[in-house]
């Protein structure tokens, strides 16, 4: 059964381009389009929709507000942001609103379809450059841990290890990057667990999320 897609963008040429990407693929059926968030809501009220490709900056109702309202109406509809803006605040706002993916308009057909398949599979998709923006922001925010949230501040080395954990590096990779032994990495991780009250590496990530050190969409 094909994925029923609605395309929402205030530029007709963008909508037509996306339709060209999808029209010859049996996995997708474009069932509607619109130029603002209000028209997106109108579309889901009229027909069965699985996924919406949503611009952010639009007149009448922007993509962030539309995403919030759509998820309230039907939480099962997947929303992928497709925008020119690689800005952390925009990314965070859209993902907080309920989007499952965030792409830039310079993506190609392969990446667009990869994103659509990812979110339909109940996962989250960031384009590579967007992912880097998120990681960079996370790295900056982890600095706050040392002074704002923990009763026992982190040492400079512990902050370095924490950042690399957030970036999903293994113990060996952290050791290589910091020119220390794996055993030393394990000691630093144990100290981080004690200072945050986390039980494992996942707990460290959840701690960062709880303290708004990572996009709250992942909470």
Structure description:
54% of the residues lie in helices and 13% in strands. The chain is an alpha/beta fold. It folds into 2 domains: 3-126, 3-Layer(aba) Sandwich (Rossmann fold); 133-218, Arc Repressor Mutant, subunit A. Strands 2-1-3-4-5-6 form a 6-stranded parallel beta sheet, with helices on both faces. Strand 3 (51-54), helix 3 (63-73) and strand 4 form a beta-alpha-beta unit. Helix 6 runs antiparallel to helix 8 and helix 9 (171-178) crosses helix 10 (182-196).
Blueprint (SSEs and pairs):
Blueprint (H helix, E strand, L loop, with lengths): L2 E6 L3 H11 L5 E7 L2 H10 L4 E4 L8 H11 L4 E6 L4 H10 L3 E4 L4 H12 L4 E2 L1 H15 L2 H5 L6 H11 L4 H8 L3 H15 L4 H10 L9
Parallel strand pairs: 1-2, 1-3, 3-4, 4-5, 5-6
Helix pairs in contact: 2-3, 6-8, 8-10, 9-10, 10-11
């Amino acid at each position: 059964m094909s994925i029923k897609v609605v395309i929402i963008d205030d530029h007709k040429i963008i909508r037509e381009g996306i339709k060209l990407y999808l029209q010859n693929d049996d996995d997708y059926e474009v069932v509607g389009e619109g130029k603002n968030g209000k028209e997106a809501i109108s579309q889901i009220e009229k027909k069965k929709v699985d996924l919406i490709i949503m611009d952010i900056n639009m007149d009448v109702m922007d993509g962030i507000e539309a995403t919030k309202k759509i998820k309230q109406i039907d939480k099962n509809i997947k929303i992928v942001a497709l925008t020119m803006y690689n800005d952390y605040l925009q990314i965070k706002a859209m993902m907080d609103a309920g989007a499952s993916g965030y792409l830039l308009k310079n993506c190609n057909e392969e990446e667009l379809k990869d994103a659509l398949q990812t979110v339909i599979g109940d996962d989250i998709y960031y384009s590579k450059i967007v992912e880097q923006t998120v990681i960079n922001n996370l790295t900056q925010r982890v600095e706050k841990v040392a002074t704002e949230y923990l009763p026992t501040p982190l040492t400079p080395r512990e902050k370095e290890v924490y950042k690399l954990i957030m970036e999903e590096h293994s113990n060996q990779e952290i050791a290589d990057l910091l020119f220390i032994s794996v055993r030393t990495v394990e000691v630093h991780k144990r100290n981080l667990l004690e200072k945050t009250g986390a039980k494992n590496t996942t707990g460290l990530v959840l701690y960062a999320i709880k303290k708004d050190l990572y996009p709250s969409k992942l909470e």
